[in-house]
Amino acid sequence: MSERSSAADGRRSLVAVAVALTLVTVAAVVPALVGARPANEVPVTELPDADDSLSEPTGDAWERTPAKEIALASAPSGAPNANDTSIESVSVRAAYTDERLFVRLSWDDPSRDGNVSPANATPQVNSFADAAAVQLPADAGANPGIAMGSDRTPVNVWYWSGATGGQELLAGGPGTTTPIGSVGSNASYEDGRWHVVYARNRTADAENRTSFDGDEDVRVAFAVWNGNNSERAGQKAVSEWQYLALGPGPEGPPYETILWAVAGLAIAAVVVATVVGVRRT
Amino acid sequence: MSTQDDDGPTVELADGVEHQVAMVMDLNKCIGCQSCTVACKTLWTEGGGREYMYWNNVETKPGKGYPRNWEEKGGGFESAEQADKEDTHGERQVGELPSQEDWGRPWEFNHEEIFYDGSDESLKPQGRSPEWGPNWDEDQGAGEYPNSYYFYLPRICNHCTHPSCAEACPRKALYKREEDGIVLVDQERCRGYRYCVEGCPYNKVHFNVMKKKSEKCIFCYPRKEGEGPDDEVRPPACASECPPQLRLVGFLDDEDGPIYKLVEEYEVALRLHPEFHTEPNVYYIPPFAPPQHTENGETVDVERIPRPYLEELFGEQVHDALDTIERHRDRVRRGQDSELMELLTTKDMAKQYRLEVFE
Lengths: 281, 359
Prior knowledge:
Chain A is α+β, with helices and mostly antiparallel strands. Chain A has helices at 3-35, 51-55, 254-280; strands at residues 41-46, 68-71, 73-74, 89-96, 100-108, 131-137, 155-161, 165-171, 178-181, 184-190, 193-201, 218-225, 237-238, 242-245. Helices cover 23% and strands 30% of the residues of chain A.
């Protein structure tokens, strides 16, 4: 073995060790960041100084938040044509500043239905506005029924409609929604896509209003109505319960990390053994 | 309908309703003057998104009515037979939501220009040419000369015993008042879904696009409750303003009142389209017309308004009702007494409007 070849061998060994270490790190860390995040999580990004930008449906700050695509299906409901809904998914982003929580919903809808400017036609007695809603447990720690909650576990609904803007509602079961105030909302319609931002103080100032000032995850569900398809009331596309990841973090249980580390080491050992084996033959 | 027991005859009312307010309209007296329409319009539905609304309207029959073709838009309940039941109705039927064009757009006229700005244009609707409106086909009717025919049909909300509008509302924003069975929309609960509009087979609930709520005939309940400036109980404006005074107002279960007698005893006051199974509490005395004529003007013994058409509107009971009235007319012609004819021709306001019997 010449000096030259032994130097080359040394470099190869270093590369093999570096590869092995990288694999161990990736195997241990990435699953914890990605794979261990439960499917129903809506990530919430902290953006302390982005209040103004987040208020805008297409503000720059929203590009610094991850999007979560959420599947929608017709809500089980007694409404006529309840199964006839047309919006299949909604993209959700969420962020908070010191004061406020922002949730943005975006979805494709080729027809814009809602209040039209005076230059256009007057609203029709048989036309319906596009609308979207965010449903939250009135008590952030509660686990209400998905269909508008119940008497004992009421829900808050942040409702936006192209005709009336934002409303904050309280509901204790289907057909019981009652306005309890207005929620900040801002909408834009661009290239066949709605972007609607809801904004509310993280601290609730009244009973039966969801508070986001604790460090716990909060359940959340979404609904979208396509006015062009006469969707209203129970005729709506809805999601399952998701949760806003406001809690201490999306860490999986510790054994998961240990298992991934073991797996990473095993892979690394195989790589090293293979490199050494190849070198010797 | 009525049942006889030891306490005397009783009328079936909706569950939980103490008394049922009702109206009888004698179609033989309607001259199509629209005074009732205007009385209602100026009292309740001027402006504020109500421009197109007529809680009371008068349409020409045969005709497409208001909204256009309302009789074909569905709603109400399926029949007992369809539901395979014996004595009640079946499932609620989902109807069709009329379009703005079916109701007719409110027309803007050039009053200002003509009356104040000295314009010599003719008075006409401005903007888009109207293509339909309430009573667009006024006086057209049907049939051929010299035997063409038509009559007028005034319509208000029927304040049904079994209102499909109320059942259609997922929020229970429409309800039937306990004290008198008047059907109202709770403006606080209404969220503008319009299931009531399509659920009412008579299309007597309207949608206010500005307020984004449903609105409908309230049977002038503030007048009925004496809430006017003089604290007097008054009948609905459509009834009191009617020049030929064709409406009787009172309670269906007031057994001494003309409504009970016309509906329950003589069975000459009929429900419009009973096949919708909502059990309206507005009743109609079916129309008579002069018999048919030959080309030469000779009278022939053939009814001008075809019975099948009247049966379409008022159900099978129309035959007995017309026969009963005809029989009583004959009695009066022969100089005999007829309570029925007295009820139908009274000019005594206290008999026409009996609204204080249950107070």
